[in-house]
Amino acid sequence: MIRTILQEKIGIKYPIIQAGMGPYSTFHLCAAAAKAGGLGNISTIGMGVGLSSATPEAAEKIFGKGKPKDLIKDAIFRMVEEELKDAPDAKFGVNIPVSMEFMSVATRLMRGTIEAYNESEEVQKKLKVIITSAGDPLPFAVDALSKGAKRPRIPIKKKIPDIIWCHVVPSVKTAQRAEKADVDFIIASGREGGAHCAWRDVSSIVLIPEVVRNVNKPVVAAGGFCDGASLAAALSMGAVGIQMGTRCIATQESDFEPMWKQAIVKRTEEDTLVARGLFGPMRFLRNEQSIRIVNETIRGASDLYRGIPVGSTSEIMRLEMEGLAKLFDGDEDNSVILGGIVSGRIHSIPTVKELFDSIVNEAEDIIKNLPNKVISQEIEAQ
After folding, report:
1. Average pLDDT, whole number, for the chain?
2. What is the largest CA-CA distance in the chain?
3. Which CATH number is associated with domain 5-254?
4. Quick check: 110 and 96 in contact, CB under 8 A?
């Protein structure tokens, strides 16, 4: 049985994290991942991204009605009291983007998470992780900012010392910043990942071993992971587990629209595009709407790799909100559908338990049989 510090520290069966992914709360997916032996995560991006102003009926259907702090507290309590009531070993986390554009909402979501944790012993038994992403972790470190700092300061580990704090990074430089913030785990995500990614084109196979080499924190691999072969590869690069987003969308329990799941299964490895998103670059599945967003992104920018594109963010926001609304109309061509390059390796929609079991079993078989595939010097000499 594969066993790493990720499983030991969080108390999970498998070294697998289900990523937090908007616009949904991933509520049911989180519960399924936790019950299947991985770390489930509640996504919070849709709880405060302004979705309600564009599609109020859809937003209320997905998140309920209320302020971000109340929405996340309600989701946490429902997860513990309803979804995981009869699953004593299940563990879950909360994913909170901390980009500057989202910082005001992120602060309220963080406060709600901390309040829920401190108000319930049952929450403390199951809510084990906070994952920050898409921005700078230092405003949430204990001693990182001076009293005069303008940015919000919520020292996570001071408010809830027993929580495990992970931060998602796209580069060695940001990994070192996460180490400075004293996070417990660094999740290194290559550019091939879906949704939020980096402008710089650094793949997981380059990023992950380089982050492992440059920090003294355990590293979780993300961006392009979907099966036992990729888990075995992550471990060989020095990671202690994997985080999966796109692969988890295409599961039976996933909160995402059936059309979205089928779109992932239908795409090849060539069918994604990167454009500016709600905050920073995002990777979309290729369709008419994502092409419109790309066109708006590169307006006035001749080369994506020499600088950040300067397309109209208000027009991009309009296109993305318009595309999100189309999801509920079943309009695949004109919907915003996020997903990673790994879509080209996804060909089924299993249950989460079937997926997690198969990933670990396959990885163990690969590791066990690898010596049989390597020709030793002794054999060559014969």
Report:
1. 86
2. 73
3. 3.20.20.70
4. yes
Domain segments of the chain as ranges: 5-254
Sign of the CA dihedral running 197, 203, 206, 209: positive
The pLDDT, as a whole number, for residue 299 is: 73
User: Which pLDDT belongs to residue 317?
Assistant: 75
pTM, 2 dp = 0.88
- Please state, as a whole number, how many other Cβ atoms lie within 10 Å of the Cβ of residue 274: 20
Per residue in 288-341, pLDDT tens? 888 888 888 877 555 454 445 455 567 777 887 778 778 777 788 888 889 999
* Residues paired with 92 in a beta bridge: 40, 127
Sheet holding 195-196, edge to edge: 195-196, 281-285, 272-276
Amino acid residing at 180:
K
Distance CA 114, CA 118 (A): 6
* Pairwise CA distance, residues 337 & 40, whole Å: 22
Paired sense of beta strands 195-196 and 127-133, if any: unpaired
CA distance 138 to 133: 12
Beta-carbon contacts of 343 under 8 Å, excluding residues fewer than 6 positions away, are 194, 246, 264, 265, 267, 268, 269, 271, 272, 285
Distance CA 161, CA 201 (A): 36
> DSSP string of 359-379?
HHHHHHHHHHHGGGGS--HHH
**Residue whose tokens read 């699953």:** 87
> Are the C-beta atoms of residues 35 and 79 closer than 8 Å to each other?
no
Identity (one letter) of the amino acid at 367?
I
Other residues' Cβ atoms within 10 Å of the Cβ of residue 332: 19
Neighbours of 167 (CB within 10 A): 28
Give the tokens for residue 60: 């209320």
pLDDT tens-digit profile of 92-132?
A: 999 998 887 777 888 899 999 999 999 999 999 999 999 99
